[in-house]
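Journal club side-thread
Mid-discussion, someone asked how the predicted structure for our own chain would compare to the paper's figures. Pasting it here so we can look after the session.
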Amino acid sequence: MKLKSLFAQEGLRIVEKEPLARHTTLRVGGVADFFFAPENYFELLRGVTLAEEMGLPLTFLGGGSNLLVRDGGVRGLVVSLRAMRSFSREGDLLEAEAGAFVPEILSFCATCGLSGLEFLAGVPATIGGAVVMNAGAFGQEMKDVLTEVTVLENGAFRTFKVEELPFSYRSWGGPEKALVVKAKLRLFSSSPEEVRGKMSRFLAQRKHKQPLRQQTAGCVFKNPAEAPAGYLIEKAGLKGCVCGQAAISRKHANFIVNLGGARASEVLSLMDRAKEEVFKAFGIELSEEVRVVGEA
């Protein structure tokens, strides 16, 4: 039985040959064999279970802000959590589904006078993605505000206390195949004016240093212990370097921008060159922060 028919029998809808460039902030990459956007935990569990029973490879997609999809696309089933985006407040606790969009949560926090997430101002991520990457800036990280993380693992939902997870730089340290589906955060009360002020200051700093108005996948490389990746790439003489319709940003060398119609292969070529030139100049190996998926 065809996969679409099998899913339809369960009341689930999947799309064939969905262009994944539509679902990433860099706007490059090929198609997904099958694309599934569950609207609740039941649909998520049932869809993932069906795919696993059929032996289909699974790829999970959040906001697509830290993702590079290769030009050949992604085999199997791509599961997007963007429809699972609800969040609620109880006192100073904020509970959010993995697909909740960070800018929407920040807007809510500014209105309610909830402080603690201002450091994410200007980050086009989902809460799930921010947790998995342990997103951080301005001396703060997600682990500093998290209290619990709920995941889907081996066909069951499981909740971890934040102390049970070995968070580190750009990693949440959870089980390798676990999917983050919900997070609980402890924030603190403040005035809406103070929260908006903090967000404005952080956003202004980002706008000054980063190409926020262009199509990017965020920071391409993790910062080595020796020096920031952007500094090393710039000192290696690559700021502004172009390959086809992709370029290393002139504003911040740890960003690669889509100039219009870029291919993933062009982005990957720039990434490879950055790694080669930085190693040649400084003997430092750059490690990707952006997640690369799919086939060439």
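Post-session note: Residues 87-209 form a domain with the Uridine Diphospho-n-acetylenolpyruvylglucosamine Reductase; domain 3 fold (CATH 3.30.465.10).
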